[in-house]
Write a structure and sequence with these properties.
The termini are far apart. It is built from 15 helices and eight strands. The radius of gyration is 20 Å and the shape is globular. α5 links the parallel β4 and β5. 51% of the residues lie in helices and 12% in strands. Strands 2-1-3-4-5 form a five-stranded parallel beta sheet, sandwiched between helices. The chain has a three-stranded mixed beta sheet with strand order 6-7-8.
């Protein structure tokens, strides 16, 4: 179970989901002096976190919530958040303390999160959403961009907690607004990645060195996050190991596309972009890194990108 240590004057943290992103985020909280209790669907992951980083791993979700002033969820989908919060015989709501704050950092569905926030409010607590951008690398350094939705006063109460994990904290509106912004952010990111890969393939067919093209893009108006931090590192290297799953990108694009439908906003490029990413996921199968999307346009072109 482990021994909790940390600054007793700081709020006690319960952190659910110590996966690729959650682990370094929870580690940043431990490093900032917070008392952190962790839980994960894989009990071994929670135990390993305690052994390697610190904190404790309660036997139940209800016990984790009962000992926490702030509960953080960092999980793959809103459905899993709902199950952890209120499903089954053991859940967070069973132990949630009045006056506590739940921070859902999942890239989830705004409508589901709004419904969960109402249930948390019935317990005298507050739920805010705070999805992140920056990937595993920035999670490790505590420099994530955090998009927050919810009650302004509650956000201010937990701002120091968020600041231990992120360098940019932006309130986007009421609960669900952070997740809406995250989905739209990933739509822009996904579109930039896809068009950049297509440009590299065209250039390579023409006779240009893709690595040289990346350098030129990064010195020009074609610069994107993908050209700066993904093309060389994960595509040209053929490592495809950024730490963010292809299935999760498709999920976020689906949320963005649903938002376009719900708001009656024509978004033809968004629809095409989502279909391309979904096609890559279907072609490559489960467990793929999102940068492996490059293999779809490569297959269509009959060409593999190569450096030099």
């Amino acid at each position: 179970m482990g021994q909790v240590s940390g600054d007793a004057e700081k709020p006690a943290i319960g952190f659910v989901g110590v996966g690729n992103m959650g682990w370094p985020m929870a580690a940043c909280l431990v490093g900032a002096g917070y008392q952190v209790r962790v839980a994960d669907a894989r009990r071994a992951s929670a135990d390993n976190f305690v052994q390697q980083v610190g904190g404790a791993a309660p036997d139940t979700l209800a016990g984790l919530a009962a000992g926490a002033d702030v509960v953080v969820t960092m999980l793959p989908t809103s459905a899993i958040v709902a199950d952890v919060l209120e499903g089954g015989a053991d859940n967070l709501l069973a132990g949630l303390k009045p006056g506590s704050v739940v921070i859902d950092m999942t890239s989830g569905l705004p409508a589901v999160t709004q419904a969960l926030a109402a249930k948390v409010a019935e317990r005298g607590a507050v739920l805010i959403d705070a999805p992140v951008s920056g990937g595993v690398a920035r999670a490790r350094t505590g420099q994530l961009a955090i998009m927050v939705g919810g009650d302004a006063a509650a956000i201010e109460r937990v701002r120091p907690v968020l600041a231990a994990m992120g360098s940019t904290i932006t309130r986007c509106g009421e609960v669900g607004a952070g997740q809406a912004m995250k989905a739209l952010n990933n739509l822009v990111s996904a579109g930039g990645f896809l068009i950049g890969i297509e440009a590299l393939l065209v250039g390579q067919r023409f006779g240009l060195d893709p690595a040289l093209m990346v350098d030129v893009l990064n010195a020009s108006t074609g610069m994107t996050n993908s050209s700066q931090k993904k093309f060389r590192q994960f595509v040209l290297s053929r490592s495809f190991d950024s730490g963010f799953g292809l299935d999760l990108m498709v999920k976020d694009l689906s949320i963005a596309l649903q938002m376009s439908k719900d708001t009656a906003t024509p978004a033809p490029f968004a629809a095409l972009c989502r279909e391309m990413w979904a096609a890559a996921a279907a072609m490559l199968g489960p467990g793929q890194d999102h940068t492996a999307l490059a293999k779809l346009p490569e297959r269509l072109a009959g060409t593999e990108l190569k450096e030099g």
